[in-house]
Amino acid sequence: MTAHQLILKQRAELLAVLCGGGSAEPLDCVLDLLLACEVLVWEDYLSIRVVEKPLLSNVRQLLDVVYDKGEDACSLLLAAMNQVLPEEQKAGLCFGKECAVLGKNRPDTATLTLLADRPVLVRKLRDNIDGALNALLTTGCFTIKDCDAVQLPVYTPSQQVRRLLDQVRFKGETAAKTLLQYLEQTETTRPNPEDKENHLSANCLLYQKKLRSSVAAQSHSLSTYGGTGRFSLDDIYTDGLLEVMDGSGETLTLGLEDVVGPLGTLNEDADTVLVSGEAGSGKSTLLQRLHLLWAREALLTNTFLLFPFSCRKLNSEHRELSLKELLFLHCCWPDRGQDEVFQFILDHPNLALFTFDGLDEFKQGFTDEERHCCPTKQVPIPILLFNLLQGTLMKGVMKVATSRPQAVGSSLKHYLRKEVLLKGFSPGGIDCYVKKHHSDPAMARRVIESLQANTVLLSLCHIPVFCWIVTKCHQELLGGQDVIPQTITDVYLLVLQHFFQRKSPQPQGVLGKAWLEEHLDTVLKLGQLALEGLEASCYVFSGYELQRNGLTEQDVSLGFLIYCNDLSVTDCKRYEFLHITLQCFFAALYVVLNRNSDRSAVSRLFQAQYRQLSGLSQRCLGHCIDSSVEEVESHVTETPNLQITAQFVSGLLSQRHHNLLLECCPIAVRERKVKQVVKSLSKGMQRHFKSIPRPVEGEKKSMHAMPSFVWLIKCIYEMQDNSIARDTMAKLDVEHLKLTYCNIGPVECTALAYVLKYLRNPVGLQLDNNSVGDVGAEQLLPCLHICHSLYLRNNNISDEGIRKLLENGMKCESFQKIALFNNNLTDACTQHFALLLKSKQNFLSLRLGNNNITSQGAEQLAEGLSYNQSLQFLGLWGNKIGDRGAEALAAALKNSTTLIWLSLVDNGVGSAGACALAKLISQSKTLEQLWLRGNNLSPEEEEELSKQESRLTF
Ligand code: ADP
């Protein structure tokens, strides 16, 4: 039968398969191929693909147009369909003689090249649309409007690429050339998905389809919104702040697509990317988003199979498994051709991606002692997992693991390709999240306003899990609570109350004052389960375990426990707490409210941290553990959870919650526990203070904070008792407090300021390389009076944060130095520095390197400098002050009798500026060094100036 006849005879079937599932993708793919091999010309394409018409009529038009073009065209159409359609849809159809759909000669214009390569380009550009649009925008080929029209969210990524290609064609040859150039530059070494598709069997494709659909189902909604059914991940997902440190120590900001990409790679030989962040910073949610986008083919399009694992669930796998069993039993079972599918994975490791959520929750700490590389041999799960992470097993498979930072030891770091830090929401992210949560804009506005009025609460919202609670409990918040939430304990009490209220039989769900007492029984049962779980690194519970703790269905229906969302093949229901922090909160409630707990439970909880540090087991309360096992196993997983629990215990025992706890816990018991907490905190601090080395002669007495210092500070903050903070700090006698790289965000700043404000003598507070941000900077204000120096290098601070900091700093007598290297400062903040310099005649050092200050900013600074007679150090390295700025500074500083050091390295300063500066230094009696390297001066000019003045350094 001729192709002509085949088309006519099978018209109904061809129509059905090309419209199958309602997606236009198969039709679009066929059209791409037919355009590429010139069966269709552009005008045909426009007449066929009319978006306003139903898909069926588009397909009919295609069949008609091609039919009219004759036999060759018909056979190419059939060949194109044969190539595009999945095997199962082709059953029963006849595509005639085999023929390849190939482009003819290489086209000689860029526009025609785009047409000839269209099928490949659609695939290549799918996860690179932003980059391509950017290239077109910056070269002026596209306007913003063009970009918006391409990226309308109703289109799938492939459709967006086709719109992009159509628009480029419309714009003409220059646009087409720009796009081709962009593609040439971005051609990566990743395998071409086409190669893989040529070798794919029907079984592999079927498996991929099944895996995609189970991953999509599993990642579609967030567990914290589980019961409500109100939000899908699409509705609520808000981008978090992702950072990576590159080889030169520079921090780069990443997008979700860069997590697996090359940006920030430190070790090319390793295949494991670690995403680390504190509890609740959104690690699991980020992985979930990656999974969902992969399942929809919207991201990671070069990944053919993605296998998601949860470490907390792997904890309950006690069998020895082979790699094949791990993949198929824990993720998705192939219905056909298991061996073939597995062989495909082994043969193409670069097409697979494994994700491991919550490495910190895996019972056993990472070791690389036992090597295992056989994919078919059964071994215990830890060996399998650790060898996968190391790359001993399945080298070449990309792995993404998430963990809290504390749980990642140096042995694992050795095997990391890169470590991506997830820092929670930015201030804009918080707004965006609240707006997504509340469909009513007026309500969203009220919540945002209430957060802005309570900056402590706002700072908490940088951590997404707190943001979720605060937004969820907006009614309680806006309704005016007795206690305005200030601490994380306050926030978790709010959510506790909210959940009980939801189930309250009273009209409007109003809870009485004694609501905690009314629900004490449930709280204690959940608390015991939570605590026992934490002690045993157990975060998933069977129905039997719930029963053993006396938990009824009614208790479960309150919503604190949820069913595990699980891909693995198990036949019993399993439960977990809504979030690990909620498990810690219930554990803390149990420690505080349980009348039968042994007397030293509280002290032991606090001491657990130190036992771990000294290498002993950190089991804390030990009532459900076999003590013989205790000493042998080396665990790291519990420590962060026990620290959070201890923080909640401190908060619950705060005087603020005295009334709430009154009927639940005898006063004497409560007071005993309070004393124990205070003693533990004081002892913990003493340990730190004792570790302070004696100052080297001529240097300041300095303390570099140990890991649990910030935790102790946070516990003191939770207690909200000034006298405790004052008494603890009275014993700290240092001149410099170093807290660099300590994951200090806004929440930690609140606690630090609360405690440090009681220091007896001024200190230098060094917070370089954290995530303080504007909100954190504002939180530091209460302790500014006790800081003689504030080091905030690399902290994401912008003009607004600086404005507030300086307004207060100006009034603080001791405040003399500030270092703000590598933040987001612009000319908008220099007026505040000018004011500071004018009004504070004891200010010594101002370092503003690597920001975005231009000549205008320098002129403003100069204005302040001309009135100042105290500044000794001025650093402006890596800004853009140019000649004008340099001249202004030189003029302003000519009367300075204090300036010792000035850096204007890398500032675009030319001869005019340099001459002015040379004159300044030649007249100055104090200036010892003026750095001018990396400016717009010729080597001859530099030599000449250095000869004139040796204090000028290039
Ligand atoms: P982690 O794994 O770091 O402990 P999760 O991902 O479990 O944190 O986040 C806890 C909760 O915070 C989520 O269940 C969700 O309600 C909220 N959340 C976290 N990240 C996001 C995000 N990117 N967008 C929206 N909500 C988020």
Search tags:
954 residues; alpha/beta; Rossmann fold; 10-stranded parallel beta sheet; 7-stranded mixed beta sheet; 48 helices; 20 strands; 50% helix; globular; binds adenosine-5'-diphosphate
Give a description of the structure.
Helix 43 links the parallel strand 14 and strand 15. Residues 612-635 have low confidence and may be disordered. This protein has 48 helices and 20 strands. It starts with a helix and ends with a strand. Among the domains are: 3-187, no CATH class; 203-425, Rossmann fold (3-Layer(aba) Sandwich), CATH 3.40.50.300; 430-610, no CATH class. The strands form three sheets. A ten-stranded parallel beta sheet has the order 11-12-13-14-15-16-17-18-19-20. A seven-stranded mixed beta sheet has the order 2-1-7-3-6-5-4, sandwiched between helices. A three-stranded antiparallel beta sheet has the order 8-10-9. With 954 residues, the chain is of the alpha/beta class. The radius of gyration is 32 Å and the shape is globular. Adenosine-5'-diphosphate is lined by residues 222-224, 236-238, 240, 277, 279-285, 433, 464-465, 468, 579-580.
Structural class: alpha/beta
Number of DSSP-assigned strands? 20
**The CATH homology group name of the domain at 203-425:** P-loop containing nucleotide triphosphate hydrolases
**Topology-level CATH name of the domain at 203-425:** Rossmann fold
Largest sheet: 10 strands, parallel
Which range best describes the helical content: under 10%, 10-25%, 25-40%, 40-55%, 55-70% or over 70%?
40-55%
Total helical segments: 48
| Cα distance spanning the termini | 83 Å
Strand content: 5-15%
